[in-house]
Amino acid sequence: MKFDSLIIGGGLAGLMCGIRLAEAGQRCVIISRGQSALHFSSGSLDLLAELPDGTPVNAPPEAFEALKQQAPLHPYSLMGAENVCRYAADAEALFARANISLQGSFKQNHRRVTPLGTQRATWLSPQEIPIAPLPWKRITVVGIAGFLDFQAELVAGSLAGQQLDVRIAELTLPALDVLRNNPSEFRAANIARVMDMPEQQSLLIEELKTLAGDSEVLFMPACLGSEDAQAFRTIGSQLPCALRLLPTLPPSVLGMRMYNQLRRRFQQLNGLMMPGDAVLRAETQHQNVSAIFTRNHGEVPLRAKNVVLASGSFFSGGLEAKFSGIREPVFGLDIHAPATREAWCHEDFFSPQPYLQAGVAVDESFHPLRDGRPIENLYAIGSVLAGFDPLQQGCGAGVSVTGALHVAQHILAAQEVCA
Q: How far is CA 4 from the centre of its chain?
């Protein structure tokens, strides 16, 4: 089988790259071995929240020069500030084309309310998420009876500390009793499937009206809208006050919905998904990838003009930690990582951990290196890259999104030259 571009990994980076290439008319395939990390995300996307030295970032474009000084191997530093801003703006437009409605701008971080009722700086958030400063003074935090993945008391406690009038209420909704009887099944995704049913929405609306009282807004766990935001809009339009949702513990409905919408967009553009498959090995000739072999296709090679490695970090198997060191398992690429195992981690659990900045070494075009030389038709994007700490710096999604569009731009520019 032959393709214009073959993408290894079906997470945020792989899907964004695949969509952009497919929009330009390329024949693309995404090989995905399992669940995307989006299933475990809040649905909000970070661009840059903090510099490596701990300085908070309010306006990312104003911080990229300092970032380059402090972290010259950061993917943003390799791309250049002007390109990062351009790709971030392009990404906002791409999300809109995929029918993903988000609030925020790359020019200025906003502060979203977290599942604990605290605030966190971020780039883009679903429209359902409340952001600071909150325009309401009287808030009711609605928990779901028996649902342990959202603690209304913790949210209310944090909000009350912000001089707000906060109370707690509990939603029962009899249709959820079947799930309550099996705690392992009483999860956000399963609750959403019930509450998204049209016949349940009228009952949910009536119960929420009762719980609202004189509140200006209801905060609920994000257990609505498995496929899109229509259920949220329908329910919210019939309440006497505003309605907002807070993410829950994984699996996250908002993250799963973003994944599903991106996947649908890719497939609508005639992109091919190969879920449940894994790349086992690759053949290279003259510094080019000539064939990819996967678990499901055995010895039948997959060939493409361009190959994009978006396999993720340790969580998804894109990187492996061995006694001999950290390695990339498919191509055997060069790795930037601490020199010794002892240097991988700090004793303080809450301090930035060095191993999180380990990853594949790339040049400015995001060609990965092997034995110090770039593989010319191979690119690497997302959390498999070296040089950044997605947790401390609050930039994981931004690196995935902007890097994906950076690589797509290089592929399409090379295609025009060849044409």
A: 25
399: pLDDT strictly greater than 90: yes
- Tell me how far apart the alpha carbons of residues 271 and 246 are, in angstroms, rounded to a whole number: 32
Enclosing H/E stretch for 370: strand 369-370
pLDDT at 26: 97
Instruction: Determine the Cα–Cα distance for residues 222 and 252; give it in Å rounded to an integer.
Output: 8
Distances (CA, A) of 262 to 142, 233, 274, 355, 396: 30, 20, 15, 30, 18
* Residue 65: Cβ-neighbour burial (10 angstroms; 0-12, 13-18, 19+): exposed
The mean pLDDT of the chain is 93
Sorting pLDDT into bands at 50, 70 and 90, what band is 418?
low
How far apart (Å, rounded) are the C-alpha atoms in residues 26 and 4? 6
Cβ-based neighbour number of residue 94 at 10 Å: 20
Residue 368 Cα distances to 98, 346, 380, angstroms: 29, 28, 6
Dist CA 81 CA 62 (whole Å): 9
Q: Are 355 and 361 spatial neighbours (Cβ–Cβ below 8 Å)?
A: no
Residue 184 pLDDT more than 80? no
Q: Using alpha carbons, select from 6, 28, 38, 75 the residue that is nearest to residue 262.
A: 38
For the stretch 274-309, pLDDT in tens is 999 999 999 999 899 999 999 999 999 999 999 999
List own/partner pairs for 199-203 with CB under 8 A and 24 or more apart. Answer: 200/173, 200/175, 201/231, 201/234, 201/235, 203/173, 203/174, 203/175
Beta strand 2-8 pairing with 28-32: parallel
Q: Is 167 exposed, middle or buried (0-12, 13-18, 19+ CB in 10 A)?
A: middle
Question: Cα–Cα distance between 341 and 18 in angstroms, integer?
Answer: 36
Is the pTM of the predicted complex or chain greater than 0.85? Answer: yes
What are the pLDDT digits (tens) for 37-59? Answer: 888 889 999 999 999 999 999 99
Domains and CATH numbers, the chain: 2-108+256-418 (3.50.50.60), 130-246 (3.40.50)
Q: Exposed e or buried b for every residue in 198-211, given b needs 16+ CB within 10 A?
A: eebbeebbebbeeb
Q: Could you tell me which residues are beta bridge partners of residue 142?
A: 169
**Residue range 75-88, pLDDT digits in tens:** 999 999 999 999 99
The residue type of 327 is R
Contact at 8 Å (CB) between 319 and 327?
Answer: yes
